[in-house]
Structures are given as C-alpha cells and as structure tokens.
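S., here's the first fold you wanted:
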Amino acid sequence: MDPQAHWDKIYRDNAPDHVSWYRQHLEASLALIEQAGAGPSTSIIDVGAGESTLVDDLLARSYSNLTVLDISHAAIAATKKRLGDAADRVRWLIGDITKAELQPAVYDVWHDRAVFHFLTSAADRSAYVRQAVRAVRRGGHVIVSAFGPEGPTRCSGLDVVRYDAESLHAEFGAKFRLISSSRQLHETPIGTIQQFLYCHCILQ
C-alpha cells in the first residue's frame, strides 16, 4: 500500500480522537509558535497536520496566514468540514512533504508534530530537510516533534525512528541553529504513554 493510501485508510477507519497521537490541544506546539514571536500575519505551515486542532487554535488566536499540508485527502477533507466557513481562511496542500512543490522562502514558522519520525530512509530525511531549507525564510523557525529515545518503535503499522535532541538536530545540519529542546509525555486515548521530543531551530 502506498503512503497516501495507507494514511487515507487510517483516517477513514478511525475517529479523530481514537488515533494514538490525538491530543485535544497541542499546547506545546502553540507555546513554541508563540515563543518564535509569531504574530497575526506570520506565515505558518503545519506539516503533516492530519486532523490536528492546531489550525483551529491558531485561527482562534487571530493568525491569518496559515497553510496546512497532509498526505491524506481524508484528513484534509475532515479538517475542512470541522472548520466550516473558517476553512476558507486557510491554504490547503495535499501531498508527501518530501516531494510536495513548495514556494521558496515563504514560511516564517514550519511546524511538524509526528511526521519526521516516519521517515526511516536517509534519502527521505534529506529530502524533507531540503524542503525546509527551501520553503522557510532565513531567520525563520522550524519546530519539529518526533518520538523521543523512549518512544514507540512502531506507529500506525509503520516503523519509526526515535531521536534525542542531538540526533534530531544532526539530521538538519549546520544551516539550523538549535534554540531549545524538550520532552513531553503524551497520553494516548487508550491510556498508554508516549515520549515525544520537541526541537526548535532557526534557519540561518
């Protein structure tokens, strides 16, 4: 099954609050976006958003320059339906982040919660980093969250890569300056605990 079909099936077969990564509000992500100095006109992309409520919360905070990208048609359709008329205030992109055609130097903040750890090949990770380098403005912020050292080894039937701050930052390289890192214990809908690592970098 190709990746798009896999994720469409995941989102069609599961209610939004039944997937392991579900969180009612992405408090850590919101805090890091605010720490990046984001204002209402800041250009923000949420990479691999799925059916996350981050876009809802950003709209509620008057952010007006938002892009949501996901590989799954089903996830994007569900999020648009949930937002109703507010969906017209968001740019929507469907595609694989390693291959999507992104405009150069347009984003002030790049946010990714739980996509990067699915990139198990070095080629895909390099392609992802090239996309960030191309699409984020110099001095822009890159916020990436992946499974930490004690996180799961598989998710949604797929292998994942776990990271500490040093190994995750090493994937991005010298063009990115690490500002902060933190770990979060996420409780899944069935009550298990997953360790997430957050890294906040600036593109130099």
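And the second, which I think is the more interesting of the pair:
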Amino acid sequence: MPLTELQLQLDQRAAQGLLRSRRTVSSPQAPQLIVDGKSYLSFCSNDYLGLANHPQLIAALQQGAAHYGVGAGAAHLVSGHVAPHEQLEHALAAFVGKPAALLFSTGYMANLGMVQALVGRGDTVFADKLNHASLNDAMLLSRANVKRYQHCDMAQLAAMLSRTTGGRKLICTDAVFSMDGDMAPLAKLLTLCEAHDAWLLVDDAHGFGVSGCQGRGSLSHFGIASPRIIYMATLGKAAGVFGAFVAAEQVVIDTLINNARSYVYTTATPPALSVATLQSLRLIADGDELRAHLQDLIAQLREGLTGLPWQLMPSSTAIQPLVVGDNQAALDLSAGLRERGIWVAAIRPPTVPDGTARLRITLSAAHSTADVTRLLEALHELAQEF
C-alpha cells in the first residue's frame, strides 16, 4: 500500500539521522525565542539585521493594512498590482543600481520564473554545484541543457563555456552560499560572461541588506555592474519582511512579466508588505552601525571557535557553518546546545553533501557580544563531553 511505502521511507530517513521535523515558535523573531513553550537563545534565523520585529516596520505594516486591506485579491496582471508594489519596485531597482525590478512572492518562485522564462530547449544553464535548491529546480524545469561546475571552479566553468556553441548561455550562482557562507567570485564570473556572451543570474538572498555599500548587496560589494547581470534578492532575510524581487534591464523585466509563470499565475503579495519593505529599505540604507556590529560578532565567534574538534568553514558572512560530519553527531551536538537553552539547527544531507552534516550558526545584528560568548562557552563544554 502506498501509505506503508511512505512510512518505510520515513523510517529509513530516521535510521540515517535524516528525518526532519518542525518546532513551533510562539514569539516574535529575536535572539531570544519561545520554542515549543521553552525559552532559547537562537542562532538559527536569517534576520541578519534584526529588522523582523522592528517597531517601524510593524507600524508601516499596520498602516499599509489599514489603507490597502489585507490581500491583493488577484495576480499583478489582473487587478492585484497596487500602488505600493509599483513604488517598491522602483525603489528596489534604484537601490541595487538596475534599470527595473519585479516583485515575486518568494525567492524560490523568482528563480523558477526567471530561468524558465529566459532559457529553454537548445539553451544551456551553467550552475555551481552548491547552488540553492530553487536554482537547481529552475534549471531542470526550463528544459535547457544543464552543466554543473565544481564549487567556484572558474577553470572548469571556462572550459564548459568554450565547448558550448549555439543557444543562450545562462550562468546561475548564489552570491552568498546559504550552507557554506562563502561568496561566489562574481567579478570573475562576469568576465567569463563577457568572454562567452552569457547572462549572469545572481541569487543574493543572503547578501542583500548585509553586503556592499549601505547594504546594497553583493554587486556593490564586488563593485560590478553590467546589463548581463540579472539580480535576485529576497525580502524576508536581512530586510525582515517577505517576498523577493528581480532587478535587471527593462527588456528582461518585460520578458518576465510576460513569460515567468510563477509571476503571471500567482496572486500578488499583500500591498501592506510592500509598505513595510519600503520602510525597511530606509533602515537598511541607514544601517551601517548594524552591519559593523554584525561584523564584530562574526570576528568574535570565529576567534572563539578555534581549537574545537569540529571544522569551522571559511566565511566572512553571517552564516558560520561548523562541520561535524556524521549526521547523528550533528543532531547530538544540536541537542546538547538545546539542553543549555541555545538553539542551533543541525543541517544534514541532502541539503549539504554526504559526510558534511553541520551546525549552521547564523548571527544577527540583534545579538549581543554576551550572546555569542554564551554560545562559545556551551560549545567548548560540549567539545569536552564529545
């Protein structure tokens, strides 16, 4: 019976230390969370600037809902494209230095829509092997030829591009890799695009708001700009709200409006969210002190993790992965922290490669140095036990 087969598959995942389950948070996003009725110091959130519970964003959301209601009521191309959506798209395009922008419901939907709209049969997508799942799914759904290169291996990518003739070429990459915390060599990727007449799709979900001048993202961080770049970023991480956007040349945005199925056939996000995100953009632009504090916390954590038996991966971002290796060992380490009132999620395959199960420590500007010290002390205690 199909249900029996499903249960057997779940039992197998559990035996391999791969079964996933949810925990219920009953408090606003903050360093201190109430999880399943207990208080924890959390290092799990992507709320990198601590804006998700910011009073100005709460007020803006309330004002937006009071004026525009709750739901958009329809897709953007029917009657759901409301004034705050339009205002936010213009503001986002200007903020990241692109001619135009388009809102999507999530980063996942943005990636699915972009790739499917821009390439198809006879075209080729080149993808870093550590890209986010949404980019992997997008390239498969596009029906284009798919070529995956080893993580940040520019020589291998160059060889692949040289051997590819005919059709459109699209290089897809995370800007900040969500499980490793390192950054793609975007300037080198752009050089390859120029040499081989390719597009560069940059998923900056974990860089927008944190990297670059005034948090303008990874393109600003590397000081690059080109009509070849198609830029995507999410609005539910550093921006603290919800949704995503694509920024690119006007002709690319017009193509997405007409051909990106995950845009055309989806109800628009609530306009009140756009009102809140417009306020978030102002806080991001004025957030140099938040970003400086976050960098101080990153340095404190990295220095304090030296000498532990687990491998700290090279990362200068808020994502600090501590590789444990074995799935069950990662779960046990996460449980040991939880017993001490600290919540750090264990990340296991297939999210990360086999043998690289890890604790994915994420820092926020809302954390204090005392919070990081508490985490470090707990990890050193657990290192003695393990």
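Why I say that: The chain has two domains: 21-49+288-385, 55-285. The two ends are 42 Å apart (CA to CA).

Talk tomorrow,
H.
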